[in-house]
Amino acid sequence: MDILQNAIDGKRVTSSSRRRAPVYNPATGEQIAEVPLSTAEEVNAAVTAAKRAAAGWGVTPPLKRVQPMFRFKELLQKNADAIDRTREDSRRCER
């Protein structure tokens, strides 16, 4: 079973917590991974990093901030057929 990692300060970080919660595919109800119930220190590190990032992001010009969303849109359009097939497969599992 995959165990998800935390994203802290732009890096993937493995939690030191042994406590985990299941992650389910909403279309099938199947458990697909586990997410760590992170420690207070890990949560504080993530919040601190997010505050640092927000300060820089807030002064970033809007045209630059929108670029990741345009890239996301391009990827969605490029992969629309595969995404559609995945959705159809999930619907078949529900029936």
What report would you give on this structure?
The chain has 95 residues and is α+β, with helices and mostly antiparallel strands. The protein has two domains: 1-59, no CATH class; 61-95, no CATH class. Helices cover 53% and strands 20% of the residues. It is built from four helices and five strands; from the N terminus they run E-E-E-E-E-H-H-H-H. The protein starts with a strand and ends with a helix.
Task: Give me a quick take on this structure.
This protein has 4 helices and 5 strands. By secondary structure, the chain is of the alpha+beta class.
Radius of gyration: 18 Å
Gap from first CA to last CA: 25 Å
**Beta-strand percentage?**
15-25%
Number of domains: 2
Tell the overall outline. flat
Specify the number of helices.
Answer: 4
Task: Describe the sheet with the most strands.
Answer: 3 strands, mixed
Element order: H for helix, E for strand:
EEEEEHHHH
**Could you estimate the helical fraction of the residues in percent?**
40-55%
User: What class do helices, strands and sheet pairing give?
Assistant: alpha+beta
The overall pLDDT, averaged over residues, is 90
The count of strands amounts to 5
Strand order of the largest sheet: 1-5-4
As residue ranges, the low-confidence spans are none
